[in-house]
User: Fold these one by one.
Assistant:
Number 1:
Amino acid sequence: MKAKWRRELPLHVMILPGLILIVLFSYIPMAGITIAFQRFIPAKGLFGDQQWVGWDNFKYVMSLPNFTQVLWNTLFISSFKLILGLIVPIVFAVLLNELKNNVIKRSVQTAIYLPYFLSWVVLGGILIDILSPSGGIVNGFLGLLGIPKIFFLGDNEWFPFTLIASDVWKNFGYGTIVYLAAITGIDPGLYEAATIDGANRWRKIWHITIPGMRMVIVLLSVLSLGQLLNAGFDQVFNLYSPQVYESGDILDTFVYRIGLLDAQYGVATAVGFFKSVISLTLISGSYFLAYRFAKYRIF
């Protein structure tokens, strides 16, 4: 036992800094959840003589006329992001795998992977420029086709789909690399046997490539369910404006406006706590499904 402990001691020491950071930045801040049940006054301090209000902050949030719309916006935007964020990388990975020219293949991989490294602050500025109704390249192209100008970032009808499309554009390169890695693990002998049997390219994709990616697809799908209420604060915050609050305001931006702009700290914490409880339930369920269908487990 002592010999085993001595042998594994360096590993425990290596994991210690990570555990300290988790405790400092993840567990200790949980004390702030108590604000959700208080009429919080910052001058009295976190552990000061605050007025406890029970579930009043939650009842107040539920009674707000725009809360249902905010919840719907969050679910709508995040659901489409999850679905398209799953389908588009799979399609691109399969198509890239079929390319025989390695130079073109790697060039395309680099091009689609590049936006993943850019922050939404940078991409937000780029999107505002290219989608502008006055001088934007996209509306200029639509004008050549005789299509009226579209205010992508200022029209409630277009704004959610602009968020979804831009998020898929930014992130699908990363997913494509993951699925390409899964494809490289498929036994080449299966393709050779299929060629001998007379299978064409589409048959090989349908009967070998897609089934070979199945476990990775299932794993990433079920794990992404835990992010259902994360519609992307950075993206929405950098792209939205008051005129698209109706269709673009999500739970995270709602918390930001109530908590920091309106100084209703108790109400904002109640919304954040509500979101955390739902997310914890979804993550637990997705972890169970990941183990059930993909045999994925952390411990």
Number 2:
Amino acid sequence: MPRYLLARVGQAVLVLWAAFTITFLILYALPGDAVSLLLGEDGENNLTAEQLDAVRVQYGLDLPLYQQYLNRLGGLLTGDLGMSYASNRPVADLIAEAIPQTAQIAFAGLALGVTLGAAIAIAATYTRFAWLSRLLTAIPPLGVAVPSFWLGLMLLQVVSFRYGLLPAMGNEGLASIVLPAITLAIPNAATVAQLLNKGLETTLGQPYIETARAKGASRRRVHLRHALRNAALPTLTLAGLMVGGVLGGSVVTETVFSRAGLGRLTATSVSARDVPTVLGIVVIAAAVYVVVNLIVDLVYPLVDPRVVTTRRRTPIGRATTAIPTPEGAST
């Protein structure tokens, strides 16, 4: 287990470094001069060439690209995310102010999406009515096909503007979380429902399910205890991957609902080519993503005790992975 954890932590560090490096290179490959974007067209025209050079020196933009990269990377390793070009404030402070707003809708969207998707999949495979099962199975593809921004705009139009049931924008109170959370939850719920529904259908046809029925297990026990436990493993993996999707989707959702969160800060920082702020956001988002997926890996054995951590040889050396043991085999 310690070697498994060390390997996973090493992978997490590699992901963070790759995210930081790729983002840095993409931002510097964008067209335009960073000083011009910082000062604006009027500010640039009002300064002399010497003053513009002084601005470049102030922000370290006169240094070679590799030196700027090493300075940024060194600052990250020491916990210094730098100063925002756009607001001239510490990037850590900007992110700390934005994270709670995004965390609220992200957590609510994930929880609602997983719960709703699981409920649809379980109901579709548990019901005795074929027409109801077909109806529930047809819902997830529709949810996947609906764009998030369109869904958000429709919720605003109907729920907020037409009936005035919930606030259309802002960050105040639980009521302001409902519509953004639903906007994030619907695509996730549809994906979870599709995957879990397919897993349940496959698992319910396995021989050990027939054995459980032959031993007198109730229909509900077979469905929820035996079939759902096995079918939930791919869905658990998907739930970890959905964290990245939710963080990315928050850019659109917070823009639609005018929430001052991490997504909106990302959009404005990219527009202003605010390199320190964008790099800080990417690193924080990547850190959240890898930590959540590490937790998901560690939760596997709790969901299904047959899943054990073992090592196996691969053509390129020893690797650590989690694999299910055969039914009834000793772990």
Number 3:
Amino acid sequence: MREFLLLAATDEEGDGGLPRVPVGDWVDAGFDWLKENLDPVFDAISTVTEGAVEGLVDGLLFLPPVLFAVLLAALGLAARSVVFGVGSLAGLLLVQSMQLWEPAMETLALLLFATIISVVIGIPLGIAAAKNDRVSAAVRPVLDFMQTMPAFVYLVPAVIFFSIGVVPGVVTTIIFSLPPGVRLTELGIRQVDRETVEAGHAFGSSRGQILRGIELPLARPTIMAGINQVIMLGLSMAVIAGLIGAGGLGSVVVTGISRLDVGLGFEGGLAVVILAIYLDRLTASFGERGRSRGLRALLTRRRAPVEAVADPAATPDATPVAAGSRT
């Protein structure tokens, strides 16, 4: 079987007598041309990216781990629910107790930088695709290609252009996680009620005012779902990027595989799961603020009845009910 595959790859005639199309040779030639002519650009991208990720890592490791875990749990408490805040604290303390806090923060820094770049590129591109059918038709096949290409294939050109390390990990993470941000931004803008947009035009609003005041707020849940998917895909790719020396939890998992150390691999995978659940629930809560059970929503609900009782004018039509009466 192996000999057959090698012959199929080297023979001039493929299956069915068709001549072999040297797609791989063309791709090799294209990458060689890019490497020879755009090497200074790749060096500049590498320098900026490495500096930004290292700065984020230093910032995330600046506070003591326990204090930073408490702050992250408090953010989860305020944004979502008490149960989520307590669970987040327990999970983050478990990561620290497994002595994987520093690799986890390296992965988080890589993911944060890749997500910011993906959002900066993806949301404007999604808006442009929603506003112009030609842009949408041009972007869609590119996104299909990016999403269906196996993730491991991205590692090869990234290593050719940026060598090994954190930079090719960031680049592959951006490429792999970008499509959902573009697609769901376009979908969210297109799903906005046309009558609401026409009402904005009727009041004399400009296209920019309609976008900022009507379309983006109404499309926010869908756009946040896209950002959530960007983060989840980015985290999976950041772990795979451990194969090319991106560091973080990916390197822990790769080390566990190379040594056949089941315990180390499981601890690295468990830390990835804890980080993924925290980021998933946290970002999802920003898209469903109305259903939030977080501290802010709880205080708002408790304050509302007090204000209503303190201001009888708020219920002018209320009919007094005699004590002891039944309806």
